[in-house]
Amino acid sequence: MTAIAAPIDATRVEAAMSRALSLAEHGPAVGDNPQVGCVLLDGDGTIVAEGWHRGAGTAHAEVDALSKVADARGLTAVVTLEPCNHTGRTGPCALALIEAGVSRVIFALDDPSERADGGAERLRAAGIVAERGPLAHEAEELLRPWLTSARLGRPFVTVKWASTLDGRAAAADGTSQWITGAAARQRVHEQRARHDAIAVGTGTVLADDPSLTARGDAGELLAHQPVPVVFGRTPVSADAALRRHPAGLIEVGHRDLATALPELLSRGIRRLYVEGGPTLASAFLRAGLADEVLVYLAPLLLGGPRTALDDLGVTTMAEAHRLSIRSIESLGDDLLVTCRPDARSSSHLTPHS
């Protein structure tokens, strides 16, 4: 049985968890696996090794850290997420920690996924202290998209639109390029690269003939390309271009979002960037399926009928969709307002902490 080490000073444990969270941020935001960081502490609370998960098929954070010490017996592992307890492309991290002889494992959050949880129980059964540690809120924030997907069985959904200050997404003649400036448009490309897929509707494909790629400042394709997802039939006029997309193409031939989202998750889509027009954006909002809302505001006034959103099913102020503003950022002449559904809002919104 593993020898139990004396508890490490709480201040050192918190500092170690903070470092583990910083390491986790280096991991890819997309893909099936969460961003996880791990540090190994000796009896004095000094970091002797650290690791982080670099993506599917690579060593998990705990194994990465263990690979950097000759002897881990008696060490304390501080991890941002409960060690996994399943065999996928790699073996269970809980087993790796047991075999390495660590004496204590401190983790910020329980693993909510059905196939991977139980790591803490397995550690305890082997005589290792496994306990929840500090900075759970910070870990929740870092892993919010992955946790939301794991808990709800669907992709984390970001709904984005660009509009003028008076809420118009296009001029009366239908023109919409470009409402926002270069800095805002580049931020959109960066956000696309942090999602597994971009969703649009048939109307957007017809009106804009979008490339749906993620590009850098010089127009080059970024390393990660989100998969384009078209709700409705892909127009024949756009077939050739979209079917040459470097990440392929997914067509969803219906608008039943509650059915479509789990289907997308089963195809590896954990983060979905909804970038269609008012019809698709409104459908996600109306169904309470928006986990994050990004609004790019340009200092323009257009007037007219072409609003950024369609009917949301709201007939009175008491039914309004309430959002919590998380940040406001200046991008050139434009503003990016990042929001979340407000937990105080009516039941048609899906609140998340």
Automatic annotation (TrEMBL):
It catalyses: 2,5-diamino-6-hydroxy-4-(5-phosphoribosylamino)-pyrimidine + H2O + H(+) = 5-amino-6-(5-phospho-D-ribosylamino)uracil + NH4(+); 5-amino-6-(5-phospho-D-ribitylamino)uracil + NADP(+) = 5-amino-6-(5-phospho-D-ribosylamino)uracil + NADPH + H(+). One of its GO terms (biological process) is riboflavin biosynthetic process. It comes from the Bacteria. Zn(2+) binds at H60, C84, C93. Pathway: Cofactor biosynthesis; riboflavin biosynthesis; 5-amino-6-(D-ribitylamino)uracil from GTP: step 2/4; Cofactor biosynthesis; riboflavin biosynthesis; 5-amino-6-(D-ribitylamino)uracil from GTP: step 3/4. InterPro entries: CMP_dCMP_dom, Cytidine_deaminase-like, DHFR-like_dom_sf, Eubact_RibD, RibDG_C, Riboflavin_Biosynth_HTPR. Its cofactor is Zn(2+). GO terms for molecular function: 5-amino-6-(5-phosphoribosylamino)uracil reductase activity; diaminohydroxyphosphoribosylaminopyrimidine deaminase activity; metal ion binding. Keywords: Hydrolase, Metal-binding, Multifunctional enzyme, NADP, Oxidoreductase, Riboflavin biosynthesis, Zinc. Substrate binds at S176, R192, L212, R215, E275. SUPFAM superfamilies: Cytidine deaminase-like (SSF53927), Dihydrofolate reductase-like (SSF53597). Its EC number is 3.5.4.26, 1.1.1.193. The active site is at E62 (proton donor). Converts 2,5-diamino-6-(ribosylamino)-4(3h)-pyrimidinone 5'-phosphate into 5-amino-6-(ribosylamino)-2,4(1h,3h)-pyrimidinedione 5'-phosphate. In the C-terminal section; belongs to the HTP reductase family. In the N-terminal section; belongs to the cytidine and deoxycytidylate deaminase family. This is Riboflavin biosynthesis protein RibD. The lineage of its organism: Bacteria, Bacillati, Actinomycetota, Actinomycetes, Micrococcales.
